[in-house]
Amino acid sequence: xxxxxxxxxxxxxxxxxxxxxxxxxxxxxxxxxxxxxxxxxxxxxxxxxxxxxxxxxxxxxxxxxxxxxxxxxxxxxxxxxxxxxxxxxxxxxxxxxxxxxxxxxxxxxxxxxxxxxxxxxxxxxxxxxxxxxxxxxxxxxxxxxxxxxxxxxxxxxxxxxxxxxxxxxxxxxxxxxxxxxxxxxxxxxxxxxxxxxxxxxxxxxxxxxxxxxxxxxxxxxxxxxxxxxxxxxxxxxxxxxxxxxxxxxxxxxxxxxxxxxxxxxxxxxxxxxxxxxxxxxxxxxxxxxxxxxxxxxxxxxxxxxxxxxxxxxxxxxxxxxxxxxxxxxxxxxxxxxxxxxxxxxxxxxxxxxxxxxxxxxxxxxxxxxxxxxxxxxxxxxxxxxxxxxxxxxxxxxxxxxxxxxxxxxxxxxxxxxxx
Length: 419
Prior knowledge:
The protein has ten helices and twelve strands. The chain is α+β, with helices and mostly antiparallel strands.
């Protein structure tokens, strides 16, 4: 599982070896990869002050301190607690404070009140991470090869889980900074990734039956399986992502005020929330700016639009006389290498409901709560974003959020019916 430089322009990550390399020592591979992923979390937290790490700007976001502690609890609970004989938890209260939604693992602090946890301190959480890291490394070094082979898949889930929280740390702190009138910068040197716009605008998928979903034994989450056959096409997908210039035209044409473009719930949400532009956009002296990880910047008309909800994406598609692709259409086109910027800039909304694939079965135990119980009332996004750690994305990856969510790095590409 490579963990190399982040998709952001800022140097947020360091190289790491594959989890299953040919070094001949699984213990060494586990130690090195574990420490690399854990170190990336700390690198992402390094620019933050203690005050930054405590704030929770809305119920859907979490403080950076909580992310750091929760990902540590994951390894303490599911690896050390269940497989390391004689291990004693670092603190008896931390399982309650830092469990997220694993009902099978016990009670937990309310999600919307995580910002109230001024204690334990940021310093205490750092000590917690060091303690668990030392215990995990010691466990890897002492366990036998058979034990490590058995537990390696669990470790890989934990590392991929931590990478998900690395992305959330950036989206959540950006949302918090967006509430601040002085427009703080996470990293003043950060730049939005360059996008590609070449080739024909449209990719045509003729009608056909295709295999979609994860089909081998490389790492994947359970919601990516089983691989199955699906009828796709005829349809055309835009090779390129929708840009800020195109979105500005939608705004100028009254897109946010035209009810006939919107789903009913979407227009109600946009009205109640006062949406007039994508998330984190601000009009300054008559010109649109956007708060980025590098601070407040003028909106770049050529850059892909970002921080839009499914409701907004769907309304834009209607305004353009098009629609959003299904996740199956996206996967088929991406697998053929036909989409520009499929990865590394913005997650792309699809019009597919987040639902189980035919034959889906959640894994047993508490980890079975990871994906399956969320398969209702949410929409699938495909690709990855500028905040996704490199090595964490793949063609079959199914991200999912509620249709009103827009604090993530989310954008869109269009689809159209093909003759």
